[in-house]
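Sequence in, structure out. Go.
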Amino acid sequence: MSNEVLIRTIDVMKSFRTEAGDLKVLKGIDLSIRKGEMLGVIGASGAGKSTLLQILGALDKPTSGKVQFKGRDIASMDDNSLARLRNTSIGFVFQFHHLLPEFNSIENAMFPAIISGMSFSAAEKKAKALLDELGLSERVRHRPGELSGGEQQRVAVARALIQDPEVVLADEPTGNLDTATGNDLFELFLGLNERKGITFVVVTHNKSLSDRCHRVVEMADGMFL
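Output:
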């Protein structure tokens, strides 16, 4: 793990307008995530974990405060630069896989690479190699409905890795999996972190998994404890 800070948040606040008034979800988050770090984020439902992850991944903007990626303020980026950042530097893995049901495993994994302009043949070759590495060599032509939950999540991981991201943001990635399959997926994350130096930020309710991260931060009521 490097001492280089990959992502930094400075006094990040996030509020949502409701009929009852502003709902404050994040209340002054200061966080530095180092390159190559495996960071676990824990806390009860409603603590603000998923909102924080969306802001770290430039899927949402803070109401106030700053988010820096490799020292650059994300707020200074135009829409095209933000889209490129999300496509090439950040991988996302969600609790619900969000795979496209009409496409097979390799097509789902290829999708971000095709969007970025990679040729079909190059994207297919890279996706096939990733799926092989993730133990899905026999399932590359299967559609999501023909895969188990664990297999679908591995396809989602391949999709997250296709652009060689610097960080993978995972929001309850084992939440819909049985214990054994969830443990296998987390082992996969640990191996990728160790072998390839990919930074991981993993939101999870599973303390036994988060305890295996390099560092764990706990959230409650929009703040770190």
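Check: The chain has one domain: 37-61+78-220. The CA atoms of residues 1 and 36 lie 5 Å apart.
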